[in-house]
Batch of 2 targets.
Target 1
Amino acid sequence: MARATVQDVAKTAGVSVGTVSRVLNGSPAVSAASKAKVAGAIRKLNYRPLASARDLRRDRTMRILALAKNLNSPIISEAFRGFGDAAAVSGYVSLIAPTSGDLEREQQLVNMLRNGSVDGLVMFSPAMADADIEALAGQLSVVQLCEIAESESAFGVSIDDRQAALDITRHLISTGSRRLAMIGNRAARSGSLREEGFRRALAEADLSPTQLLFAEGEFDFHAGRRLTRELLSRAPLPDAIFCGSDTVAAGCVREVTDAGLRVPEDIAVAGFDDSIQAEMCVPELTTIRQPAYEMGRVAFDALLARMTERGEHRRGRSFLPHKLIVRGSTKG
Amino acid sequence: MARATVQDVAKTAGVSVGTVSRVLNGSPAVSAASKAKVAGAIRKLNYRPLASARDLRRDRTMRILALAKNLNSPIISEAFRGFGDAAAVSGYVSLIAPTSGDLEREQQLVNMLRNGSVDGLVMFSPAMADADIEALAGQLSVVQLCEIAESESAFGVSIDDRQAALDITRHLISTGSRRLAMIGNRAARSGSLREEGFRRALAEADLSPTQLLFAEGEFDFHAGRRLTRELLSRAPLPDAIFCGSDTVAAGCVREVTDAGLRVPEDIAVAGFDDSIQAEMCVPELTTIRQPAYEMGRVAFDALLARMTERGEHRRGRSFLPHKLIVRGSTKG
DNA sequence: CTGTTAGCGCTTTCAT
DNA sequence: ATGAAAGCGCTAACAG
């Protein structure tokens, strides 16, 4: 049998489509008798309102799309969980799609916001240029999470990456390291900020970077190993390495250890994110904890405001507090 | 300014809405002149067809929803990537949403299929009962991936979990282990199959399980540590432990090592999935590789058939070949 | 090749 | 409290 419609329900219940619709939408202006008849017909016909028809009429979908380079990142999945929980409270469904960092694919997904497939967009790791995000956010509801482009129109939520990198580098220095290296990721906006924090901490202590290496492609365990191998093959050898993520730090620890050096006695290693990798590593990683779940919640609040408010909406960025987690991979 | 419609485009281009629609949908029956005029108007007005109106008319959305307990699993994200790539070729967009294993949340998302928000559904780790999946798949387009419920109506893609567990347990036995333990997960359908394979391999060799432990809640690194601790506190001690996932195996290796025992000399450890965790572990894990990306592609083919074919569609399940990966965590 | 028109299924006035 | 009817934006069938 074909899908039931309001018409069918109305006929079966012996009322008008208007009444059916009112019951569906919980309008108070319906008699208990009608309500019961409609409820019965709905059950009997196994009726569900068709989303596209409802969306067309209401001019909104109650759906939100999140875009991320990959779904694998613990920070992203945790932030998205926080976002989704907050969204659910307001009746929104949140979906996520990976872009693989591919601009074309990202554009295709962003078009879902442009063509009204979704009411709002969350961008975790945009491939598009800052100016394009700016233009998009000028007209539609967009919020940036974790990675924030400079933008007048879009709102973003993250930690203060520069400060966090400053904090953890200061920790490295305060525990006696003097020859500091960094393995970073300039491809990510947050990566540049972490580099800044690293440099600033060194400058404070009148030190200069012993080595600075940046990933070309992926920023993962293998990249961490490869870059560390490169780093260890050059003089001067560092006595501490700050890595832009825990996964990279895990690769780093592995190579340092395989080279017959001890962590942290010979070389201290610091990560970033406080993901499960930090605990799986031996020794466990000193790292920066991001309040990812809470960041997601805050991001939804901002997006909701953007979606519902008529005129002005929140702009700029919101920084949530991070925390230095000291473990065995650094002295101290 | 308000959103432009086909009407606006038609007026601006000086043609009828029919012509605009034909251009939009690439109909060949349009003169080059009209096509150019419409294209110009579309650009000028920055027009995008409204998804809900188009979906309503066409009675399909070209969207597919995938449901998973969490997005964090390497197997799931890789399988979803394969699925998404295949879907994109056919013009479908695939989105994914986490359920956290919560039945109510899963139902809410499944309703997106029922109400036509999406054309098809992929289930990675269903919380709902097999009978409910059966009923759902009887009417709508559903495919199961990795975790497959027994079902007449739904199609599913996975590896042969029982055979894979049999293979890896045989490897453990063939490399000299005689007192085998397992840390498994009865909550997952695949977990039970892996247990069966484990038991069968032991039976073949006239052995019986030394210990069998099952996770209560999460099946993760911490659970792996906890269960291994429990396992090591009891006699008799095993000389090999088969874990239902690499992450759990990593926790297992950690506890065995911390207890002053050597892997694999005192206790061999085997994982499952060949995720990056298997390589991050020291020693690296012997494990089972799943062709996750390819599984996703096959799943899409099946779902597409289900969505487009009129009558009968593929049923049952498709098993893709797994592979035993031998590394340092087992003797051999 | 093009214009006109009838709905897709739903919500929401406007009467009553 | 309820019914009738308009119309959201689009596609497709029909006429020309």
Target 2
Amino acid sequence: MELVTAVEKISELYFPLSQACKNDIEAAAQIIAIEKTNLLVKEGQIAQNMYFICKGSARAYYLKNGKDITDWFAFENDFITSINSFFMDIPSPHFIEVNENSVLLKLTKANITKLSEKHLDFERMGNLIITKTMLQLQQRIVSLQFETAQQKYENLLDIHPDITLKTQLSHIASYLGITLETLSRIRKLKSRI
Amino acid sequence: MELVTAVEKISELYFPLSQACKNDIEAAAQIIAIEKTNLLVKEGQIAQNMYFICKGSARAYYLKNGKDITDWFAFENDFITSINSFFMDIPSPHFIEVNENSVLLKLTKANITKLSEKHLDFERMGNLIITKTMLQLQQRIVSLQFETAQQKYENLLDIHPDITLKTQLSHIASYLGITLETLSRIRKLKSRI
DNA sequence: CGAGGCCTTGACCGCGGTCAATGCCCGTGG
DNA sequence: CCACGGGCATTGACCGCGGTCAAGGCCTCG
């Protein structure tokens, strides 16, 4: 069953969980299938759920003067939610959109809280995920601060070589903090080599 | 005594702690006085301690092609460490430098681990601090991605109006991802208004 | 008083943003 | 089945922000 394998995957990839913990996760979580371009969270809502991507991909974006700015991508085996909203219980500045027809594991905040209280290993895992996210953000700051548009694009390709197959270039551009036009020119240069 | 008031401050500012927890922190922590320009962590070391700034200020920086790039400032009532190193047990990419003659509360990682295991409220507080740091970093990404040099400087002034009194402009410039010259020109413009 | 840090100022220029036209692909309806 | 329209990407012309390089000013401290 899909739910069991998803939980197993989480335990393997993030933190080894006891069988009792895995069982409780399985009892609390749901598997849901979502179609391309559907929204998991809308701006202004309070994000109630954390999603783990079993299959597919998603992104968080916000509107800045009406422009769509991608803030975060999540692919298979990543977690995604509106972090501001989920952790601080404030209205989400982000939309979360599913980019492809996807299968997600969904955990409510209430369930996560209960699981954290009951299972030390679950709480540890949560800590670890937050810490890693923090370090990733820090890395991204370094990248944004001192790299050229081209370097930033190449870094992204190093991490996600096939991102251009699944993702609109305009979303990638705003994620990198550059314009669509600049990204297009960079890609042209690279293809000529 | 200084130690007791520092712990009280932490409890007030970050998360309400039980008296038992505060007592244990006081038993585990040390107050240390450090002179200006001393280093708390050097590049390549593994950061063993978390510091809370009772008085003074500090910064984390790294060397990029020999240039000093400020990554983080910490002022009174902030915590500071080399986050990569401290949380992941890897050699620090950062130096941590005390900017003024300062008084710090120091907690070793071993003590923090013990306190987290013993006191649920302490662990919660740790979680909260990490989460808030994560959200701050995320905010900084937005700022770096789409703001002009001037906007970034003004944002910093909103948060730390008196930062220029304590901090070299060259450190501020590298924190904002701009050059010292650009910062100087921005400041000139502002002073003429 | 001289030296060395730190900051300011000026001249120059290139990366990447903006605006606008064009190309390309695909879904929909006549 | 083709024609049209809309969304996305490409390309070109232009230009301004902010980087680089270099000179000079201003403290502070020995």
